[in-house]
Amino acid sequence: MDRREFLKMTAMAGLGAALLPGCMSAPAKPAPRADVGAGRETAPPAGGELIVAEGTDPAEMLARGLATLGGIGALVKPGATVVLKPNFSVPRAPEEAATTNITLVGALVRTCLAAGAKTVKVIDNPFTNPVICLEKTGMKTAVAAAGGQIYTLNGGRDKYFKPVQIGGQALAAAEYSKDVLEADVFINMPILKHHNGTTLTLGMKNLMGLVWDRGYFHRTDLSRCIAETAAFKKPHLVILDALRGITDNGPMGPGPIREYNKLVFGTDQVAVDAYGATLFGLKPADIGYIRIAAELGVGRIDVDKVPVRKA
Questions:
Q1: Model-level pTM?
Q2: What is the pLDDT of residues 56-67, one digit of tens each?
Q3: How far apart are CA 190 and CA 240, in angstroms?
Q4: What is the CATH number of the domain that holds 112?
Q5: Is residue 41 part of a domain?
Q6: How many domains are there within the chain?
Q7: Which residue range(s) make up the domain with 258?
Q8: Could you read off the pLDDT of 156-166 as tens digits, one per residue?
């Protein structure tokens, strides 16, 4: 997707430039502060397995998947600050399958709090009207009912973002989510759906919502910027919502919906995304950011060689 197409899409959503400060006004490569320097993280273990839970009840599937991983207590300790990053970037109702399942998100908030988490924050940086996204997706109501905190990052550049060194070829530096940088536990919760710029939205694509100037990604090399962002900071866990998602006209929708009835759990971002691509009927190497991330050593693209265990 080029910049003209990106701006056209946001305009169709009823936005003015004032609602897209991160895409329109931030410098392409912000100068990092001396006190930041988070640096690139090492790749997850090459042998990391994937856990797949099948069914139609998101909360029950989540419980099975986490139990198979060894229980939420292995990840969330008493007093921990947990940050969840679902996708609620477009103003679609839950049944339209363009955003992360709200029952799943609410269930994970409850599970983390039951494990003793001090705070569970649910964040995104919608590229359409954030107030409408919070309401129409049902995410605000679901998270509040579960006891979590939910907010969008759109209006708080100084409050929510911190300059960091990404160290990439296309993305040398960026302003990245403070919440994630400071969290004890970070869980990425993408939805599997079509995207007209990258073919698919998956876990690594979902990380764009943690960067202030996403417009820079579109102005340069979208797939490489996504992969380099994934290489900079990895989640402690990825839970791919492959319950149901649009198969065309993404990311905005509406579009035709396919039901996969799966949740995919893993620590290897590339392997999770590669598995998701196969569910969609595509080869992982045909998705640019998956291929580049594998080349950068973020994880394994040869998903046929990654152990897959059913929950």
A1: 0.86
A2: 999 999 999 999
A3: 5
A4: 3.40.50.11440
A5: no
A6: 1
A7: 3-27+49-310
A8: 899 999 999 99
Q: What is the pLDDT of residues 220-253, one digit of tens each?
A: 999 999 999 999 999 999 999 999 999 999 999 9
Tens digit of each residue's pLDDT (9 = 90 or more) over 9-37:
333 333 333 333 333 333 333 333 222 22
pLDDT tens track for 259-307: 999 999 999 999 999 999 999 999 999 999 999 999 999 999 999 999 9
Token pair, residue 301, equals: 């693209």
- Does 34 fall in a domain? no
* HEC per residue, the chain: CCHHHHHHHHHHCCCCHHHCHHHHCCCCCCCCCCCCCCCCCCCCCCCCCEEEEECCCHHHHHHHHHHHHCCHHHCCCCCCEEEEEECCCCCCCHHHCCCCCHHHHHHHHHHHHHCCCCEEEEEECCCCCHHHHHHHCCHHHHHHHHCCEEEECCCCHHHHEEEEECCCCCCCEEEEEHHHHHCCEEEEECECEEECCCEEECHHHHHHHHECCHHHHHHCCHHHHHHHHHHHCCCCEEEEEEEEEECCCCCCCCCCEEEEEEEEEECCHHHHHHHHHHHCCCCHHHCHHHHHHHHCCCCCCCHHHCCEEEC
**Within a domain: residue 204?**
yes
